[in-house]
Amino acid sequence: MPSLFGPTKYAPVHPRRELITSRTPISIYVSRAGVRRIVTGHNVEGIAVVKRDDVMPSKELGEAFPGATLGHLWVTSSLPVNDNNDDTDGATRKPDGDLGIVMKSGLNLQYTDLAPGGSVPMHRTPSLDYNILISGKLLLVMEDGSETLADKPGDIVVQRGTIHAWKNPGPEWARWVTILIDAKPAVVNGTPLGLSLG
Q1: Integer Cα distance of 71 and 86 in angstroms
Q2: pTM of the predicted structure, to 2 decimals
């Protein structure tokens, strides 16, 4: 099967990699460190906590995609959108849900910058949020008082309808990208946990 990345499974020689030849497999260039994933949830008392803090490995995609790896972080089972058939600039749409950041029956891709020493107060939206650190450092503060430091670009926090806050311990600005997906509220012991501020 032909490759999308060229006719062979070998990388060309890079001028700064004198010890690597044109016949060196591409896999030597691929980082195998995986991506850190922090997933939130609730304990049996309904308190927001960090449920998982792990590194998700990736797998090589095979000869059809030499040098490419893929690591699943979180997969949702539905959310059909029609943006592939609509010329509307998505940035012109205004989120119409909680706190002006959740798009009812849709999703919102946004980025946030937070100054050194700055914080975002405790809050919860009925949404599933994928937060990806781009630069700087962020402290994820959970309802139970725990703090988890995201300090490497690419660290990911999956927020599942939990009360949380963000702090920037500095010394640099922090930037992260968030994908907020409208979701049913988390339910603990039969009680739906909706919007919360403070």
Answers
A1: 29
A2: 0.71
